[in-house]
Amino acid sequence: MDTDRLPVAVPRRRAIVAGWLAVLLIVGLVALVASPSDPSGQLATESVAAAREVSTATTTSTTNRSSSASTATSSASSTSSTTEVSTSTVAVLDAGEPAEPPPQDADDPAVVARPVPQEQPTETLPPAPPPPWAASRSTSASGLVSTDIGCAWDLSAGGLDAFFAGRVGPVLGWDYQHVYPLGGNRYLWLFQDVFIDQSGAAATLGQSGFVHNAAVVQEGSCFRLLHGGTSGHPQPFEDGSGASPATWFWPMGGEVHNGRLQVFWVKMVKDQFDPSPPDGLGWHPTETWLATYDPNTMARVSFRPAPNSGVTPIYGYAVASDATHTYLFGNSFEQNLAREGGYWNGPHSATRVYLARVPRGQLLAQPEYRTAEGWTTDAAASAPILQRHWAEFPMQPRFMDGQWVAVATTDGYWGDWFSMDVALDPWGPWTTVEARPLQPRNFDPRRNTYHAHLAPWRDARGNLVVTVSNNARNMLRDAWPDPSLYRPMVITSTWAVPPAPPPPTTTIPPATTAKPPPTTSPPTAPPTTARPTTTTTLPPPSTSTTSTTSTTTTSSTTTTSTTSTSTTTTTLSQLAD
């Protein structure tokens, strides 16, 4: 390893000790998040702030050293590939805290080596008896190879974590899991970069076949693998408009509407050079496509460019619907940071989250885009609804039980924190109700964590079930001989309710008395004056409008004046639909 090119020289032992001290202090703070006596989220918010202070205190010296080397590193990384540096200021509805780069360990920087493997095994395997799953293997009418890969003991975090920790049938390892409800107790899982060995003889990733995506149909707690090609030569579940070693398709968000499953796919292109650590991965997205499937057979019905196929950002990075609209969350999905001037030239484009919408289920319609003022059909006028962290903010939202919930891994490959946010509306305000260190399975220092994805169900206790990708920091060195390092883990997160919006600021005008008109009664009758009555009625709470209504009724006997005033200070992130 060429340590002269690494930006930080931090003794690994010191970093580990400091990290564990931080964990011990944070455990007590994060425990407050789950407190049932804190329905408003006040304790959760205080816990998040305190935890961040502990983290900052333990990494200050490392960060200072990191910053001092940023100029040299950015210059060196720019030679890895064509550099596209963005220095423009972006208006963000909720910009969050000022971003700082997570410190990188000089002995083990994030994303050291993650190559694009060959599709077929590089080693010849000896003959082996048929594996246990061979008897269940079949080929569907649409040409998909179907293999039963077993059952989890239940759909809790513990049950799923135990299932994904081991080899599941022919699958040795995979990542970037997405889960799509199909109806009833059926779900589709789509994975990226899957190592498949139908022979059962492979023990390493180099002995296994490789596809850029594969599907798993879940029925109850049992799972069935689907991929193209044959058992001896697996091909991707979705090869899109034509895949090759230099181009491929990865799954994004999707939903079932009108009896059809629709999934957004992003076309990836391999860059000519791999960036040096910690500048990321040697590929980038170029186009967004929309596929339609029969949810019963998973046969493909159509595959076409998305209405907004440009990738700045990818709309459809995550997809979720409420009663009236389907929302397309946007992210650049740029992980080759050398294309943006290198790791230290942040915050990077993938830290910004955008939002578009279409009428519910009409994913082929032209979207509206969220701006600071509301909605527009002009994609160029869109504004990010959130910006957080340094390298990326891979936010994965869902609409669950009448509210919005989102999970994320802070800075993806480059970070080691987990966060959960809740909101009443998809454009926010989003409130962080949980933030904590995210350790890989078995606290293995060879692994990193990324892509937290929320399952579309809650466990028996009402908690959220969250899948998290794991991989070796140095995939060639560590995961190639030990595929167990390259398998998702599953954690749980406590359900939380978004805080109530602040009450409006209401001004009540002073009472007024109207003078009655003169009377025309006979002179023998004494003049009479009816005492006027003033009634003031407060309007219901309002979050986005300012209105004034005044009605005055005058008669010879009674005058009624009704005044209603509502004044609300509305931030950009609280704009109503």
Entry summary:
The chain is mainly beta. It has five helices and 27 strands.
Fold blueprint:
Elements: H1 12-31, H2 42-68, H3 70-77, E1 138-139, E2 145-151, H4 157-165, E3 171-183, E4 186-196, E5 209-219, E6 222-229, E7 234-235, E8 247-257, E9 260-270, E10 283-293, E11 300-305, E12 314-321, E13 325-331, E14 352-359, E15 368-370, E16 375-376, E17 386-387, E18 396-400, E19 403-410, E20 417-423, E21 431-437, E22 447-458, E23 464-472, H5 475-479, E24 489-493, E25 533-536, E26 547-554, E27 559-566
Parallel strand pairs: 25-27
Antiparallel strand pairs: 1-2, 2-6, 3-4, 4-5, 5-6, 6-7, 8-9, 9-10, 10-11, 12-13, 13-14, 14-15, 14-17, 15-16, 18-19, 19-20, 20-21, 22-23, 23-24, 26-27
Helix pairs in contact: 1-2
Structure description:
The chain is mostly beta strands and 577 residues long. Helix content is 12%, strand content 34%. It is built from five helices and 27 strands. The strands form six sheets. Strands 1, 2, 3, 4, 5, 6 and 7 form a seven-stranded antiparallel beta sheet that branches. Strands 12, 13, 14, 15, 16 and 17 form a six-stranded antiparallel beta sheet that branches. A hairpin with a 2-residue loop joins strand 18 (396-400) and strand 19. Helix 1 packs antiparallel against helix 2 (42-68).
Poorly predicted ranges (pLDDT <50, ≥5 residues)?
Answer: 1-18, 23-89, 512-577
| Beta-strand segment tally | 27
SS class: mainly beta
- As a whole number of angstroms, the C-alpha radius of gyration is 29 Å
What is the percentage of strand-forming residues?
A: 25-35%
Average pLDDT number: 79
Number of helices: 5
* Largest β-sheet summary: 7 strands, antiparallel
Q: Give the helix proportion (percent range).
A: 10-25%
Cα separation of the termini: 53 Å
Per the principal axes of the C-alpha atoms, what is the gross shape?
A: globular
